[in-house]
Design brief:
By secondary structure, the chain is of the alpha/beta class. It has 15 helices and 15 strands. The protein has helices spanning 18-32, 51-57, 77-83, 98-101, 131-144, 162-171, 183-191, 225-237, 255-268, 279-282, 289-303, 320-337, 361-370, 399-408, 417-436, and strands at 8-13, 35-40, 66-69, 88-90, 118-123, 148-152, 176-179, 196-200, 214-217, 242-244, 275-277, 307-310, 377-381, 384-389, 392-396.
């Protein structure tokens, strides 16, 4: 939503959220300059509404130009719109996210489709996989964002079917590179359609002169940058297409020096393609890979390093290709706009949430007083898990303790096994949110960035 002048938004809410809605909407109206009205329907929780129930109770303000409904009504939006003469939109499921709905402090997604870093995804020991399994894995990597599939061979074990493997992947529209120093494997792969060879150095660069594809030039040893320059000059003189890779080294083995060598390559060869094998760091560091991938992609973007080679073998980097795909868009946008890579792409924030909604003690007290039914609502606030129902408000930082309080409360005798299991599941999520400083919304999946798995709606059985 971007056009606010001369607009009158009518907001629909339930009794519990009334106070919060009035406060937040008043601030937004003052900021964006729109008129508004709020209809509080005779229901405790807005999430209990259905489309038909809403239409029976809706009193449309004559001045309203847009009707804003609670987010839980999104599945009924089309039927509601058919019965209402003005535009109808669903807001967020949580009222505190309403500023994002209006664009206040919202991450901008404009321009995030653009990128210029190529992702090469390596399949380690590809020669050990049946061809069908190899194809399935390659297709999944491509779906995650890989532009090229690198087939990693096993040194000293010639791969007789390498040509068939390349041909199979090419037949399914996949671009392929071959990672081998074996001349026969490289020749067979290139003959079947591989377009990039990893790698050549001063010992085998002559092989590249007879290949119909591009090669990656590497130093004879990571510290010997001059050997890379010599190989590059020979390839250049021979008319061979190539890209440079000075070799990224892990922490403890020369990371800082290796990053400096990439800068040296760019200065020495300002117009030559460069590749960085980022898996050397993600696979060799005891930390989740998303942050490392984003940092390295940012370095590559600023230094005009046009391709990265990654793999996702170790468990903490098993989503590296997807992370790189998100990161290359984020860093491209940040560099193009000349801004920090912040509040742009939240999908790479997986462990903790970008921002945590704070529910005040006053709001909890108001909800506790307003609830008249026996449904149990769970909240996380002030370092504790809270469970609210009619005449009941229990809390604690241990979900087992909170459940014991619920069982001992007047609502305890109504808890059947199914409901108790559901509450245990929700309190487990609440406990995780509490430990990791994440947002918790009952009956909603915890947010894990691009790893988020949606959940079905279990708590409230909607009735017409």
């Amino acid at each position: 939503m971007t056009n606010y002048p001369n607009q009158h938004y009518q907001f629909i809410t339930g009794r519990i959220a009334e106070s919060a809605v009035r406060s937040i909407v008043a601030e937004l109206a003052a900021k964006f300059g729109f008129n508004y009205s709020i209809q509080v329907l005779p229901i405790t929780v807005a999430a209990l509404m259905t489309g038909r129930w809403l239409l029976r109770h809706l009193q449309l303000d004559p001045a309203a130009t847009t009707l804003v409904l609670p987010g839980y009504l999104v599945t009924d939006l089309s039927s509601i719109q058919a019965a209402v003469a003005i535009p109808v939109q669903c807001g967020p499921k949580n009222i505190v996210d309403l500023p994002l709905f209006f664009g206040a402090n919202a991450p901008s997604s404009d321009g995030l489709d653009a990128y210029d870093i190529e992702i090469i995804a390596e399949i380690n020991h590809a020669d050990r996989l049946p061809l069908g399994e190899l194809l399935t894995l390659a297709q999944q990597l491509a779906a995650d964002g890989a532009d090229m599939i690198d087939l990693g061979c096993t040194p000293g074990q010639p791969w007789a079917e390498v040509g068939l493997a390349v041909q199979l992947l090419r037949q399914h529209g996949l671009r392929v590179s071959i990672d081998s120093f074996d001349a026969a494997e490289v020749s067979a792969a290139c003959g079947a359609g591989a377009e990039l060879v990893l790698s050549v150095n001063s010992h085998n660069w002559q092989l590249a002169a007879d290949l119909p594809c591009e090669v990656v030039a590497i130093p004879d040893s990571p510290q010997d940058i001059d050997s890379l320059f010599r190989t590059a000059e020979r390839l250049q003189n021979a008319g061979v297409s190539f890209r440079l890779d000075p070799i990224l080294e892990p922490i403890g083995l020369g990371l800082a020096a290796s990053l400096d060598r990439y800068a040296q390559c760019r200065r020495r060869f300002p117009d030559t393609s460069i590749m960085m094998g980022i898996g050397n760091l993600t696979e060799m560091t005891d930390v989740d890979s998303a942050g490392i991938n984003t940092l390295l992609l940012g370095y590559c973007q600023e230094l005009c390093i046009g391709s990265v080679l990654t793999t996702q073998v170790i468990n903490w980097s098993r989503s590296s290709v997807r992370e790189c795909d998100l990161a290359r868009r984020l860093v491209h946008y940040a560099v193009q706009q000349g801004i920090p890579a912040k509040n742009i792409q939240p999908q790479l924030v997986t462990l903790r949430d970008p921002r945590v909604r704070q529910l005040s003690a006053t709001a909890l007290a108001e909800m506790s007083t307003a609830i008249r039914d026996r449904n149990i609502r769970i909240f996380v606030a002030d370092g504790q898990i809270h469970a609210l129902s009619a005449g009941v408000h229990v809390s604690g930082n241990d979900p087992f303790d909170v459940m014991q309080q619920l069982v001992a409360s007047p609502i305890g005798r109504t808890l059947d096994p199914e409901h108790t299991f559901y509450l245990g599941f929700e309190m487990c999520k609440a406990s995780i949110a509490l430990a990791l400083s994440k947002n918790y919304e009952q009956d909603e999946a915890l947010t894990w960035g691009h790893l988020t798995q949606p959940e079905k709606f279990h708590r409230l059985k909607r009735k017409a």
